[in-house]
Amino acid sequence: MTSTFVKMLKRKSRKGITPVIAVILLLLMTVAAAGAAFLWITKFQGLVSAQMNNQLTNQQRCQGILLTIDNIWNDEYGISFVMRNAGSVNLKVAELNKTTVTGGVSGKPVIFTNGISIGYWSANTTCGMDSPPPSPYTWNVGESYKVTCNEDPFVDDSDVADNDVYAITITPPCGNGAVNSFTYDKSKES
Known about the structure:
It contains 3 helices and 10 strands. The chain has about 190 residues and is of the alpha+beta class. It has helices at about 1-15, 20-65, 95, and strands at about 65-75, 80-85, 90, 100-105, 110-115, 125-130, 140, 145-150, 165-170, 180-185. The radius of gyration is 36 Å and the shape is rod-shaped. The strands form 2 sheets. An 8-stranded mixed β-sheet has the order 1-2-8-6-5-4-9-10, with no helix packed on it.
C-alpha cells in the first residue's frame, strides 16, 4: 500500500498545463495574431487609399490645365505672344517653370526652345515673362501674361525670311497646351 500511496502523491505533485488553460492560451494567441493582422491590413489599406487619392487629385488637376496663345507678333526684341490660363485651375510656380515654349519655321532650324522664366531677364534666358505673376507665384485662371522670346544665337538670322509662317507651341508639364502661328514680318525687327 505504501507504494500505491507514493505513486498517488507523485501524480498530484506533477506540475503541468491543464487542457483548459492550454485552450485558453491558444485562443489568446489566435486573437492577438488576428488583431495584429487587422491593424497591419488597416494601415496598409490607408496608405494605398492615400496614394490613390493623390494620383486622382493630380489627374484631375492636369485635366484642368489649359493654356492658350491669344496673340503673336514679332518686333525688335524678338517674338512675343500673350499666354493665357484658360483652364479651371491656378498654376503653381513649379508648373509654370516646367512649361516649355518652342518655336520656329517649318523646315528650318528651330529658333528657340526653352522653359519660361518667371523672373526678370537674365543673360541665358530665351523666353521670359515681361511681368511675372505676383509673389507667391501663382497663375490664376483667366490671367494673361506677355512672353517674349529671343532668337537662338546659334541660328543664323537669315534662316527666317519675311512672310515665313512661324509656329509657337506651349507645353505645360501636364494638361493641354497651345499651338498658334503667325506670319513673320521682317520690317518690324528694327
